[in-house]
């Protein structure tokens, strides 16, 4: 089998000497991929993965050269299933809404309570007769819950001082390669690993407040820093800490379970209500996150979504502990993950990011929803003539600029 090299490359004119892993993600139906050999601590952190892992075996205009017979058969089955659904639902967006009796406002904007009411009146019997997989896919951070959970999880790791000394060399190498003032690899190696992660968090928050790129850390960079810092921890300990974050929260803050979008004390307008009504209608709900799968799984139960229905970035383990390497959902793309692991095309898709969620929303057969989107997402949808709708969890009285 052919293989490809995976590396982080450059970001903001920084050359990374220590590149993150891109490991196969959680799947339900595909064969287990080959296990990559772990590099030694002194190696440049790079390895090979099967090239097929990065091919999206569905969709128009794909290049099927070099794909395995299994992948080609899967592609044909997906296309056949999608074609039958389109034949039932119709080719136009209004026709598909009418087919399932989903009455949405003419404006490109809907509040959560209005969507719950519309879904309660919808009828998906036509799709059930077709035996089409009725699924909805959701991003996690800032789609089902407010904020980025991995940031508060990193804070909890720092507060509990639970990081292992063996995590410091790869963490120092990664942070030292970023060219941050006063943070050379040698300096970072002299410090405690918990202090280094705390410094990274401070620099990430500085970026969010508008600090220059050359003296701060982006959220995307912090993701790989967190993975490196978790080297040596066991999945059991990480799971316990994730549970603690949702139940108790970081010291001085509310439990993270309170981040579930719920704009008012009245019923039928929360993210959990949307999930509930979809499931009551026989639509299976899945989470597809670019963040850590273990953190989304820990939060899924507060939304009524099963752990097995969560797809996300996986921390690599070896001999029962984390290696400090992590898969990258961004490299693979959410559409490929949805079509490989969940369904050829979801009925509904929800997300807040134009770069990672926008392509997933395009898969939705009935409706894609931009959750409290930034103007760039709205402009992208208009520019590409997409029938996305803005879904707002904002409190009453707050409106988005459309």
Can you walk me through this structure?
The protein is α/β, with parallel strands linked by helices and 402 residues long. It folds into two domains: 80-145 and 260-402, HAD superfamily/HAD-like (Rossmann fold); 149-256. Helix content is 38%, strand content 13%. It is built from 16 helices and 13 strands. The strands form four sheets. Strands 5-13-12-11-6-7-8 form a seven-stranded parallel β-sheet. A hairpin with a 2-residue loop joins strand 9 (315-318) and strand 10. The longest helix has 21 residues, at 69-89. The radius of gyration is 22 Å and the shape is elongated. The chain starts with a strand and ends in a 10-residue tail after the last strand. The model is unreliable at 1-65 and 396-402 (pLDDT under 50).
Features:
402 residues, 16 helices, disordered C terminus, Rossmann fold, alpha/beta, two-stranded antiparallel sheet
Largest sheet: 7 strands, parallel
Q: Bin the helical content.
A: 25-40%
Which overall shape is indicated by the principal axes computed on the Cα atoms? elongated
The assembly state of the depicted protein chains is: single chain
Euclidean distance between termini CA atoms: 48 Å
Number of helices: 16
Q: Low-confidence runs (pLDDT<50, min 5 residues)?
A: 1-65, 396-402
Rg measurement, Å: 22 Å
CATH architecture of the largest domain: 3-Layer(aba) Sandwich
Considering the protein shown, what is the CATH homologous superfamily of the largest domain? Answer: HAD superfamily/HAD-like
Total number of domains: 2
SS content category: alpha/beta
The CATH topology annotation of the largest domain reads as Rossmann fold
Order of helices and strands: EEEEHHEHHEHHHHHHHEHEEEHHEHEHE
Mean pLDDT: 81
Question: How many E-type strands?
Answer: 13
Task: Give the strand content.
Answer: 5-15%
CATH domain class name of the largest domain: Alpha Beta
**Largest sheet: spatial strand order:** 5-13-12-11-6-7-8
